[in-house]
Amino acid sequence: MEILIQILIAVALVALVVWLTAVYWHRVIRKMNTSNKALSDQQNIDRMKDRAASHKQTKALKSKVDLMTDVLLEVQRQHEGMTSYMEMLTSAELQPSQKEWKQVCDHLKERSGWLTEMVNSTLELLPYEDMSELEQKDTVHVNGFCLDIFDSCKKYLQGNVDLRFETELNDDAAITTNLKALQRVLTELLVCSMQFTHEGEIVLGVKRHQHNDEEYLMFTISDTGLGIPEVAKDLAFEQMSGHEIDSNVVVVRLRLCKAIVKLLGGSIYLNPAHEEGTSVVFTIKS
Fold it and tell me: pTM (2 decimals)?
């Protein structure tokens, strides 16, 4: 009887060991499967991130190539036009004393100026689009800074236009940013307004703005000028869509502003609620 009991105990112990071993390996395998699944999920996430980054880089590169192509085509077109003007100036039918001579010279000078600005702005734009960050260590007293920029751009005014500065900031309000970059954005936008607004007003406004618990400064440049055609608004910061050199220069300016504003931690867009003329809004981190 004792032998039988011992045999049963031994069998029970063996069964227990087998069961515990099975439970152990089941848990090990389940843990491995969970770990492998997590690893696989992470690998899939990493692949998706890499694919998204690659797509973003490809899109950015295509955008640059498209812009450079548009600029080169515009240079070629303007070169052909200015060659025609030069032929008129050197023809026997046109003399320096004639009114037409002055008109041709004025057209030639204007086209040359627009073309030079477009090429220079494009060359300046490309490095900004390749930057990932911009040093921001300058202390800027906002109200005085805006008024100084306003005054420096008055030479571009054409016509009877009222200028107005509206601010919700205290006179001593200051931010830490990149002074040169902010100066370039405000100057470009104000020059655009002044060159295309011949009557009415241009208003530069600034106020504080909060978004997703982040503090920003919001600048608005509004005018009663010619405005941006409806069909061109969607691509106003990206791609040339017209056949006039001055309009194409504006696109390069806006794209330059967009690249700089992004580096300053903000965004830029056209104000859809503005009905007459153009209103550009941009923010920077304050």
Answer: 0.76
